[in-house]
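4.2 Preliminary Data

To establish feasibility before requesting continued support, the project team ran the inverse folding procedure on a target of 620 residues. The structure was first converted into the token representation described in Section 3, and no sequence information of any kind was made available to the design step. The complete token record follows.
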């Protein structure tokens, strides 16, 4: 029974193998055997690479790029669209070199380009040999330096488009272009009035931060015409948003974008490219519904809707079909990375046995113990109510000094035993008590990762990711848990989980095996998470490993990026690790001088300090 809904969200890429382990299927060769994730971890551990690990699967990245480009190409052919598709990858969604370099490589056959939203991102884009027809689309707020570099890059043959986002930028472009005497490739960001539903609703509509409104758009056209640069305005950009849940919102927004495009063409603007920005979503829950963490469409459907809507709108207005551009980030990279960590220990909120009655028991303790005699499926709620009532009364007596510590401990133990019995009766499939109540009884599994470093969106915007045990999946889970991370922050917890029958507040898990690691995997973390993460409690970057899935069921390790050492994270917060070693050594020597420690203690102390400073920031 697939309680975690892996068949729904795993999309045949993430599956459970015969051994009950999470395994990765190679989408580039569906007949190849799936590779067990715990086997990969064991192999990496043998090589000295420890969890927590971000595992990047290169084959998934290649697959998503191919799939998206092919879906657009097939839609173009099916609909009879005359234009081409030229996608760009927004670097901000995952700026890591190993990711960007591979995207450029896998995208080359499709003239896939890059989107830069800042100067550093443009600098990265210009360090890549893109295909001849690929675009570099420059969005965001641009200063003169940004604009100068973008225009100059045209001399090297880059198709760098400066998307004008504000009236001020128009002035700067006119100045720099005339000074350099190079024709820039220009775009304009047109603000759509259609608001798109979902988590990122505010990035669309009138109050969105970027783009020109209709009035500013008309002024810009006039200004460029006056400056003799209107012939350079080739691209209209209308960003649809991010993680758009409902495909009908896509149609509506694309339709509005087309209205602007055809109107601008009518004004004599020689547009050739229509850029629809991001928005293509990821079905994190696998529900296939228009919710915050799911989408009611496939990639194929998205592409068809976009191409069809643009074709109809252009045909109706008698305008040539444009080259279509999208800036999908999330859908391209989310699947390719997963975060894997081990569970360090568990805190239980139940006790397997109850203490026996004692003669001197307070009568409320006897009442609490009596519940064990009438606990049953039909009376669960009543038992829950009684147990909480008596336990709270006993706590009040303890606070007033009427019962002692040992009596209170007996009461708490009886209570925890009652909770264990209630959980037993509630069962795992047919829960007779609420999800909320079950969460109060759930274990806390303390895990070896930092939420703030590795899953910042879970903390900041309640993003949901599938989280599952990587092993024992043929053994029914016998416990429920919420997860806490290794930071000393009570916010560092995960208590919303995607399960087959909806989002629940605790995760079904197994009793932790003895002498064996128990791994959990968090999936679809390739978009936005790596760079948004921060150094809370100085937990640094995790180890990052890029692998390729082989046809024989094995894997190749393509690249390893060691996680931050303690000395590295210290230097990020302005400490000089060498100075710290020297200061520590001074204190050791002073302790020897004042005879608080022996000379031979020096080596032990210095070795321990040095070993820590050079080590991984996570639990080793
Ligand atoms: N393009 C622009 C201008 C954006 O602001 C964003 C993100 O919001 C994207 C592209 C990428 O969007 P997504 O990751 O939803 O595809």
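Position-by-position output of the design step:
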């Amino acid at each position: 029974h697939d309680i975690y809904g892996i068949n729904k969200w795993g999309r045949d890429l993430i599956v459970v193998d015969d051994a009950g382990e999470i395994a990765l299927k190679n989408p580039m060769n569906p007949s190849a055997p799936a590779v067990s994730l715990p086997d990969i971890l064991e192999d990496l551990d043998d090589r000295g690479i420890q969890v927590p690990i971000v595992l990047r699967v290169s084959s998934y990245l290649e697959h998503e790029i191919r799939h998206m480009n092919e879906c657009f190409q097939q839609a173009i052919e099916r609909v009879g669209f005359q234009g081409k598709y030229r996608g760009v990858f927004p670097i901000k969604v995952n700026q890591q070199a190993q990711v960007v370099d591979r995207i450029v490589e896998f995208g080359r056959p499709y003239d896939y380009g890059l989107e830069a939203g800042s100067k550093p991102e443009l600098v990265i884009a210009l360090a890549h040999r893109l295909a001849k027809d690929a675009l570099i689309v420059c969005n965001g707020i641009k200063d003169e330096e940004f604009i100068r570099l973008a225009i100059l890059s045209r001399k090297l043959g880059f198709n760098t488009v400066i998307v004008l986002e504000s009236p001020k930028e128009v002035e700067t472009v006119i100045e720099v272009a005339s000074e350099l005497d190079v024709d820039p490739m220009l775009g304009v960001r047109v603000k759509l009035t259609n608001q798109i539903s979902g988590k990122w609703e505010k990035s669309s509509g009138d109050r969105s931060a970027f783009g020109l409104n209709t009035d500013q758009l008309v002024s810009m056209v006039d200004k460029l015409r006056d400056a003799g640069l209107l012939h350079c305005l080739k691209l209209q950009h209308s960003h649809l948003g991010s993680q758009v849940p409902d495909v009908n919102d896509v149609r509506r927004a694309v339709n509005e974008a087309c209205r602007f495009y055809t109107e601008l063409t009518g004004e004599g603007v020689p547009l050739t490219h229509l850029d629809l920005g991001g928005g293509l979503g990821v079905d994190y829950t696998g529900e296939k519904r228009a919710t915050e963490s799911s989408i009611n469409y496939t990639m194929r459907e998205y592409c068809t809707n976009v191409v069809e809507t643009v074709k109809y709108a252009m045909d109706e207005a008698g305008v040539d079909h444009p080259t279509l551009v999208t800036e999908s980030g999330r859908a391209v990279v989310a699947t390719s990375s997963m975060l894997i960590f081990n569970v360090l220990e568990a805190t239980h909120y139940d006790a397997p046995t109850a203490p026996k009655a004692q003669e001197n028991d307070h009568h409320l303790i006897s009442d609490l113990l009596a519940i064990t005699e009438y606990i049953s499926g039909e009376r669960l709620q009543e038992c829950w109510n009684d147990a909480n009532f008596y336990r709270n009364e006993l706590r009040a007596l303890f606070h007033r000094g009427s019962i002692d510590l040992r009596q209170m401990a007996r009461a708490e133990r009886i209570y925890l035993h009652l909770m264990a019995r209630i959980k037993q009766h509630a069962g795992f499939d047919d829960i007779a008590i609420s999800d909320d109540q079950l969460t109060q009884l759930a274990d806390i599994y303390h895990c070896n990762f930092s939420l703030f470093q590795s899953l910042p969106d879970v903390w900041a915007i309640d993003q949901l990711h599938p989280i599952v045990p990587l092993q024992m999946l043929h053994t029914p889970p016998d416990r429920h848990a919420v997860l806490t991370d290794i930071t000393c922050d009570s916010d560092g917890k995960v208590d919303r989980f995607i399960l087959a029958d909806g989002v629940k507040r605790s995760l079904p898990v197994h009793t932790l095996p003895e002498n064996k690691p128990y791994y959990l995997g968090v999936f679809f973390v390739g978009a936005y998470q790596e760079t948004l993460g921060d150094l809370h409690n100085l937990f640094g970057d995790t180890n990052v490993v890029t692998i390729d899935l082989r046809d024989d069921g094995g894997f190749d390790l393509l690249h390893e990026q060691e996680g931050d050492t303690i000395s590295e994270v210290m230097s990020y917060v302005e400490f000089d690790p060498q100075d710290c070693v020297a200061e520590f050594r001074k204190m050791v020597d002073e302790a020897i001088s004042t005879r608080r420690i022996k000379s031979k203690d020096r080596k032990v102390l210095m070795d321990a300090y040095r070993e820590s400073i050079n080590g991984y920031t996570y639990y080793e």
